[in-house]
Amino acid sequence: MSAATDAVRSAAPAPAHPLGQSVRDSLVVAKRNLIRMSRIPEMVIFGLIQPIMFVVLFTYVFGGSMQIGGSTSATDYKNFLMAGIFAQTVTFATAGAGAGIADDMHKGLIDRFRSLPMARGAVLTGRTLADLVQTALTLLVLAVVALLVGWRVGSNGDTNAARVLAAFGLLLLLGYAFTWIGALIGLTVRTPEAATSGGLIWLFPVTFISNAFVDTANMTPWLRHVAEWNPFSATVQACRVLFANPGQSQSDAWPMQHPVWASLIYSVLIVLVFRTLAVRKYRSATA
To answer: How many CB atoms lie within 10 A of CB 86?
Structure first.
């Protein structure tokens, strides 16, 4: 009897570690979302067109009329602009994340996932990881376009490959953090259309009241203060420092003096806060 019991115990699968199960489930959901994206190529293509349009329009329409560090050189503005365009691109992916989750909710897919024995946060984590892969692809294409229109790293000082990669790492981290805001919006609204609108409305003031497209020194004092403490501005400033591009803010504000640390802290805090809220909402949300 004892031998038979031992045999049954040894044949039974060992209980999975919660963290390991969460990672495995997240990767499975991420793979499912990536396969889905590959079957809808227009979703990726349209996601690439918008940032490319911003690069071309800002470069050739505003270049030469914007003053950066006392210069109105179109080349200086081009090198100044790209950090802002990169940051804007990764944050605008938020709307797509929210719309995708709202669509899954609308079709009842979230309810089916919730009935399965899988980690609670895996569905949302998998979705945000898949969006991160798409954002990285978009960023790669955008960097190539930027080089074609004349953007150059090291245009205002020395840099190296490690610092350039670190800048792109900060951009991806910011994009990943913002997709959790999109996930919360997607779980809160009832339709994908509402998630798209709700995911973009708040992004415009966040990206435009910043140092992305103009020098904050030309803003009124109260607006400059808001812009300099904007998490988005910290990442843009960090990228300009790491890319060694012109237009770095000389403000005494802490995020402008320590932009790399500020960008890291802001992004990690956003992930912690909005992941917690989104997973809590996921547990109670109904289609």
So the answer is: 29
Following DSSP, what letter does each residue of 79-98 receive, concatenated? HHHHHHHHHHHHHHHHHHHH
Which residues, in sequence order, are bridge partners of residue 68?
Answer: 71
Rounded alpha-carbon distances, angstroms, from residue 169 to 133, 136, 200, 225, 261: 12, 10, 23, 26, 13
Give CA–CA dist 219/211, Å, rounded.
10
Nearest to 43 by CA among 34, 56, 52: 34
What are 220-262's pLDDT values in tens digits? 999 999 999 999 999 999 999 999 998 888 889 999 999 999 9
Q: Other CB atoms closer than 10 Å to residue 20's CB: what's the count?
A: 10
Amino acid making up residue 13? P
From 44, 27, 267, 199, select the one nearest 123 (Cα to Cα).
Answer: 27
What one-character-per-residue DSSP string does 37-62 give?
A: HHT-HHHHHHHHHHHHHHHHHIIIII
CB-count exposure of residue 45 (10 Å: 0-12, 13-18, 19+): exposed
Q: Which of 45, 241, 6 is nearest to 141 (CA)?
A: 45
Condensed to tens digits (0 to 9), the pLDDT of residues 156-208 reads 888 999 999 999 999 999 999 999 998 899 888 878 888 877 778 888 899 99
CA distances in angstroms from 201 to 65, 165, 194, 197, listed in the order given: 28, 30, 11, 6
Quick: pLDDT tens for 87-122: 999 998 788 778 888 887 777 777 777 777 777 778
The per-residue pLDDT of the chain, averaged, comes to: 84
Confidence (pTM): 0.86
Q: How far is CA 194 from CA 90, 249, 280, in A?
A: 20, 36, 21
From the number of C-beta atoms within 10 Å of its C-beta (0-12, 13-18, 19+), residue 265 rates as middle
